[in-house]
Amino acid sequence: MAAITGVMSVSSGCGFVASFSHKCKVFLPNSYSLSRKYCNPTSHNEKHYDIVITGGGMVGTTLACALANNRILENKRILLLEGGQRQDYQVQDKYSNRVVALNQQTRTLLSSIGAWKRIEAVRYTPVKKMQVWDACSDAMITFNEDHLADGLAYIVENDLLLHAVSQQLSNKDSVDLVYGAKVDDVSLPTTPGQNATITLQDGKRFGTKLLIGADGVNSLVRKTMGVQYVAWNYEQMGIVATVKLSEPTENIVAWQRFLPSGPVALLPLTDTLSSLVWSVSTAEAKKLLSLSEEEFVDSLNDAFWKIHPKDGMVEAGMRALGQLLEGLSLHSGFTRQLQPSIRGIVEGTRAAFPLGFGHAASYVKPGVALVGDAAHRVHPLAGQGVNLGFGDVAALVQVLADASRNGAVLGDVAYLAKYETSRQRHNVPTMLAIDALHRLYKGTAAPIVLARSLGLQLTNAFPPLKRAIMEHASDHRTS
Questions:
Q1: N or C: which end of the chain has fewer CB within 10 A?
Q2: Closest to 202 measured CA to CA, from 219, 221, 183, 220
Q3: What is the mean pLDDT of residues 416-441?
Q4: Which whole number is the average pLDDT over 110-130?
């Protein structure tokens, strides 16, 4: 797919403006002026928009596109502020080490705004089966073992997803996008009907009835809201890399093994490549990053294949459960597909990022709302982080469409509260379950290993329970 290209035009007295197909106006840093139709006639210093979104990552850009794509909101004037510089996308033979596992509902969202067809035109990989197992016992669980359901997830590179959504956004003439927009100050409404105000480091100011913070874990919008934010560091890092499989295979399975040091997972890319996400302590991560490629591959194969000592009490408990399930004519779930071995890593793809938990007690206040990592942050062991953010997008667009249809102000907290309630009902249980799994699998004491092993094996033996887990992981419902 061709890189993003733009038509350059001269902007009065201040450099140039990049415009995609004369639709979505893209303003490059320190070189933009705003169209007269977006000026607030009551102020010479402050430009007015119906909605301002801070943060032009995957979630923020998708939100801008989804808002502009909604038939009720399509005429609302939207400003998207991105602090980073514009990056032109070009397809590379080499896969990026930054990928996301999108669930069915996220794919539906991307399809609804026309971005999924652009991803399909380049590349993505469906996950048709998942196998998760415990290194300290024989317990395991598989999802979609018979491949009867649609794909469990879709592996897409971050930069490709952002490019696909940005291309769709370029067709929306109601959206202005500013790159290099460093936010210096945020002022929120103090009285009903008042605008939120955003000031950039270069002095530009924007007023809006609704400010949406999609500005990540260290969200300035969230800090300005003054809401309680519960957060902790796991003292772990997630190592990512693109790895080469020992032999070609029909690579459609996501593998995850829970080790005492943290989970290690492989996500399919091609018949010979997979994407690695390996959670280890910060100290161990630094050590692994310093190893030679051969030493790193040996350590990775150990993580997937090393046989750990089994406690007698755990083995006895698992045997007893197996006999019970057999007596009840239930599938015991011990049919194991062997995971692949690794022969190498793609040069330059090894990296690591810190892992932590974070959740804002409130996502909204009058005239302001949070989405994505600005509102919540989770451990990557379940691959749900970005899907929670896209779920926020779908819910917020629906609520704002309802508000507009009913003649309410977009920043009306009564409507925003509906968004907060619906998303917290989904996000909080999901996040707490992920955190509990992380803590449960860190334990190595026999009673803990036995309890989690029995729970995993029982879940695997009851297909309705597994289906319920899968459905919750893909659920973006807003009511």
A1: C
A2: 183
A3: 93
A4: 96
CA atoms in the 13 A half-sphere facing the CB of 39: 9
Does residue 346 sit in the same domain as residue 374? no
Strand partners, 435: none
In the predicted model, what is the mean pLDDT of residues 203-218? 96
Say how far apart CA 389 and CA 349 lie, in whole Å: 25
Instruction: Tell me which residue has tokens 């033996």.
Output: 461
Can you give the residue range of the structural domain that contains 146?
Answer: 99-158+234-353+445-473
Q: Picking from 227-236, 376-385, 417-426, which range would have the lowest pLDDT averaged per residue?
A: 376-385
DSSP class of residue 39 equals: B
Q: Is the pTM of this model over 0.70?
A: yes
Specify burial of residue 182 (Cβ count, 10 A radius: 0-12, 13-18, 19+).
exposed
CATH of the domain at 152: 3.30.9.10
For residues 203 and 332, membership in a common domain is answered with no
d(CA 319, CA 36) in angstroms, rounded, equals 74
Q: The dihedral of CA 465, 467, 473, 475: what is its sign?
A: negative
CB 155 within 8 A of CB 265: no
Is 168 inside a domain boundary?
A: yes
Instruction: Say if CB 78 and CB 237 are below 8 A apart.
Output: no
- Identify the CA nearest to 433 among candidates 388, 375, 373, 369: 388
Cα–Cα distances in angstroms (integers) from residue 160 to residues 1, 81, 95, 106, 217, in the given order: 10, 20, 10, 15, 22
**For residue range 287-323, what is the model confidence (pLDDT) as tens digits?**
999 999 999 999 999 999 998 777 777 677 666 766 6
CA distance 286 to 270: 28
Q: Is the pLDDT of residue 4 over 90?
A: no
Task: Say how many residues make up the chain.
Answer: 479
Helix (H) or strand (E) holding 336: none
Domain for residue 221, yes or no?
yes
Q: Is 185 helix (H, G, I), strand (E, B) or coil?
A: strand
> Measured between alpha carbons, how far is 298 from 265 in angstroms, rounded to an integer?
16
Q: What are phi and psi of 252, to 5 degrees?
A: -130, 5
Cα(3)–Cα(26) distance, integer angstroms = 15
Q: What are the start-end ranges of the E strands in 144-291? A: 153-157, 175-179, 183-187, 196-200, 205-213, 229-245, 253-259, 262-268, 273-281
Locate tokens 């194991």: which residue?
A: 336
Please name the residues in contact with 117: beta carbons below 8 A apart, sequence gap of 6 or more.
111
